[in-house]
Automatic annotation (TrEMBL):
Bilayer topology term: Multi-pass membrane protein
Natural source organism: Nonomuraea recticatena
Cited InterPro entries: ABC2_TM, ABC2_TM_bact-type, ABC_2_transport, Nod_factor_ABC_transporter
Family: Belongs to the ABC-2 integral membrane protein family.
Name of the protein in its database record: Transport permease protein
Primary location class: membrane
Domain called ABC transmembrane type-2: residue spans: 28-256
Gene designation: lieB
Subcellular location: Cell membrane; Membrane
Lineage, broadest ranks: Bacteria, Bacillati, Actinomycetota, Actinomycetes, Streptosporangiales
Keywords of this entry: Antibiotic resistance, Cell membrane, Membrane, Transmembrane, Transmembrane helix, Transport
Domain of life: Bacteria
Length: 259
């Protein structure tokens, strides 16, 4: 059993490394992954920041919006997993993998691992830019560890759902639509503007969609504020996304690669 686990772990490491090398060979896509959240942050802070109030929170806008931008940074890179998997499924590379003595689920899992590594780096760069713009987190060491865990969990959940989407759709163009959905959700949450300022139906959606508690939990941890229900709601959403997406993606992969 230990030999089988070690072999599978080695296969997963090699496939994740392969995916990361592919990213390194397409610097334009890599730069977009890193630059897009930074551009969004600059736009919000310097263009819209003076016109947007943060409602009852009383926070400076840069402090208010940074958690949402961090999710955009990690989520956009994670969402690209759908495109990578769709490209492999339609480009014939999966047929070559099927001739190798590896577990089928390791192939999409390799893309998920690579996505987590890439997206966590992009999030760290976005945080560094935010600090340069005046963001001053006051998190303790324990709260900082929870921030890392929450960002990691979010990236993992989005990557898992992206893998499922990439296996479900039949073209890379359809797979690319997932990136738009991931970028869209933070806008209609409590991340960019306070949900309390939105009209009725939109406010109801913003308050009950999964991105809002994650943003609020990040904001509370980074700024050492009360978290309320945001922490356990975030854990429920992220855990459910992974536990549902992973087995369904495994079934889809087996069906699409069956002869």
């Amino acid at each position: 059993m230990s030999t089988a686990i070690a072999t599978t772990a080695g296969d997963l490491r090699r496939l994740a490394g392969r995916a990361l090398r592919h990213e390194a060979r397409t610097p334009d896509a890599l730069m977009v992954n890193i630059a897009l959240p930074v551009i969004i942050m600059l736009l919000f802070v310097y263009v819209f920041g003076g016109a947007i109030t943060t409602g009852s929170s009383g926070l400076a806008y840069v402090d208010f919006v940074v958690p949402a931008v961090l999710l955009m940074a990690g989520g956009y890179g994670a969402a690209l997993t759908a495109v990578s998997i769709s490209r492999e499924m339609t480009g014939g590379m999966i047929d070559r993998f099927r001739t190798l003595p590896i577990s089928g689920w390791v192939v999409p899992a390799g893309f998920v691992v690579a996505s987590v590594v890439r997206s966590v780096v992009a999030t760290a760069i976005a945080l560094a830019v935010a600090i340069a713009l005046g963001f001053r987190p006051s998190a303790s060491l324990a709260e900082g560890a929870l921030v890392l865990a929450l960002v990691f969990g979010y990236v993992l959940a989005v990557s898992a759902v992206a893998a499922l989407w990439g296996l479900f759709v039949r073209s890379t163009q359809a797979a690319e639509a997932f990136s738009f959905m991931v970028i869209f959700f933070p806008y209609v949450s409590d991340g960019v503007v306070p949900a309390e300022t939105m009209p009725g139906p939109l406010r109801g959606f913003a308050e009950h969609q999964p991105t809002t508690p994650i943003v609020e939990a990040l904001r509370a941890l980074l700024l050492d504020q009360p978290m309320g229900n945001a922490g356990w709601l975030s854990a429920i959403w992220l855990t459910a996304a992974v536990l549902i997406s992973v087995p369904v993606a495994a079934v889809l992969f087996r069906r699409r690669t069956a002869r």
